[in-house]
Structures are given as structure tokens and as C-alpha cells.
What we know:
Order of helices and strands: HEEHEE
Strand content: 25-35%
Low-confidence stretches: none
Helix content: 25-40%
Mean pLDDT: 91
Number of strands: 4
Strand order of the largest sheet: 1-2
Amino acid sequence: MNLIHNREKQEMKFYPMERIMSVDDQDNCIRIATTGIHLARKIGEGLVHSYQGQLQFTDGDAEKNIRVIWERD
């Protein structure tokens, strides 16, 4: 969670409106809602860089939404 919050602080320098809206932790799965796509993408990239695993991006409508899924075996 420290990595996630640190990425949020870093991204706020370039995209001041990007924030973490909610964090939902259930059954070995953490769901994080952000206000923008840049922060979501950077969190996913940071997780892969630090902890390896696989990252999957799914773009939503007109590049306004993105789903980032990170998994590690």
C-alpha cells in the first residue's frame, strides 16, 4: 500500500486532479478506484516493476476509463 500511495503523490505533481478515490480490500484482492487513467496506469506499472507479475490493461470508452489488472502467482 505504501507503493500505491507514493505513486499517487508522484502523479499529483504532473496531474493535480488525479487521486485515489477508494480502496476496497476483500479476499486477497484489492480494488482501487482513481479519478483518472494516468494514476491507475502508473500504479500498475509500479507494482510490476517492484513485485514482478503480469499486468493487463483494458481501455474503456473513448480513453476516459481504464481497467488495470495486476496478478502475481
